[in-house]
């Protein structure tokens, strides 16, 4: 039996949490921060694209899912804007680290809210067959989007297991 839609989403959420922790680690060098930021950015972008397509859109089409989906989309946009603020060449300053911490806080808030509230709403709206079908499509699209965004940044790659990793030198 394949993993459920919510299990697959949670797997990506855990990767995001781990990368957020690594991004703001006190001992990280600028080069390490750059690498971890690119891995996080790819994971966030790929996850958001696949999640919006295969969870939010189906729920947007229902009255009970409309408000929750809109809220989640708004938070994705806020996360995207913080990533843009961090996409500068100088990652040494205190201001950059403060923004990275805000990004981590926003990501953790969004994931917690999604897992505690949004998944429950979605679980009531989507039947088992729909969740299975959306889970398969989400997983396929997540890996495809990871590869797309990794190619855009060139300093990260996607492993054979579909995970975002540092590109070989």
UniProtKB/TrEMBL annotation:
Gene3D superfamilies: nmb1532 protein domain like
Pfam families: Hemerythrin
Domain Hemerythrin-like: 6-121
Signal sequence region: none
Matching InterPro entries: Hemerythrin-like (IPR012312)
Protein name (Swiss-Prot/TrEMBL): Hemerythrin-like domain-containing protein
